[in-house]
User: What shape does this take?
Amino acid sequence: MPEGPSIVILREAVEALNIKGKKIDFAEGNSSKIDIDRLVDKKITDIRSWGKHFLICFDDFTLRIHFMLFGSYLINEKKKTAPRLTLEIKNNELNFYSCSVKFLEEPADKIYDWETDIMSDRWNPEKALAKLKSAPKMFACDALLDQDIFAGSGNIIKNEVLFRIRVNPLSLLGEIPEDKLEEMVAETRNYSFDFLEWKKEFTLKKHWLAHTKKICPRCNIPFVKEYLGKSKRRSYFCTNCQIFYGKPVVRKKKVALV
Assistant: This one.
């Protein structure tokens, strides 16, 4: 699933085409969720992104592209498989595959809270911290995937941030010290921009310290790989250097019947 930094790369690439203010000449695709013909002759007023959503804005509605788990796109190229949506604007072509396509009838500013977007200039760390404090029973791994707290954060960011700040993914937010929660907020933002830089260099995977790794680079012992939290997404973590903040689980003893 593309995470926030990857959507920023898409947004910047589309912005570089200078299609803002131009009309869509042609639209087609196999999406049954929207009236594709509605897009033809519509003037693009803005290109935006929020979290994992790519947005093409028009005067009276916004086209939202969400890439889900397996979505992708090509600019001025095509795959052999049929696109979910194709847009032709002047001499440029945008192709979107295996994604969710939707029209938003309200202005984007009424729908999205830009202060929750980890890549936004309007990112508000104080708001993120307050939301973490308000959910004391939430697991750390779930918090970092919660788009209402960290819009744009995904599984890579989750695993790498928790490793950076040395927190076990099953730690409860209410048990984590406040300074460590502040570190979680700060490093989510920091790592996201590292992610962006490395992704542009095509070196992202070379910089992974925890995600998909088998050995902890700090402790030189095997990582644990488990599907944790409500989302059951893959977590890679070290039981030695990543501290568990929480109450021990008391397991009831089984009583043998005689």
